[in-house]
Write a structure and sequence with these properties.
Blueprint (H helix, E strand, L loop, with lengths): L1 H11 L7 E2 H7 L4 H10 L5 E2 L3 H12 L8 H12 L4 E3 L9 H14 L5 E3 L1 H5 L7
Parallel strand pairs: 1-2, 3-4
Helix pairs in contact: 4-5
Amino acid sequence: MADTRELWAQARAGNWRLLTSIVAEREVKNAPEEVRQHFAASFDTSNILDTSEEIERLAQAYLAAGVVTPKFVDDALHVAMASVHGIRLIVSWNFKHLVNVRREDGFNAVNLLEGWPPVRIVSPKEIIYAERDGP
């Protein structure tokens, strides 16, 4: 929780630009009121990505390659949205289905085959200590 709060503070300071997706927006609708309020305060239509046929196709390619199972299609959609929109970093606490080397390698193998750029999937802890002026 502290790392997530620090990430949000760094974003407010201009160190990071936070984006999300309609998939996350949909997931938050069933979250506790505090989470819904925080989401609404953090994201508006200018930083909520929509889906497209390309995104849907790429997510299906992840499923076909066995990177994630159909039960976790939303995780595939998150990665596909980032890939198609050219977003370099995906930040998540979902270590089972997103933030792990095997999954990242699988998503990026499919991206390579499908002509999309690679993505990094990290936890907040991995980026809050990144030096903005570093190499």
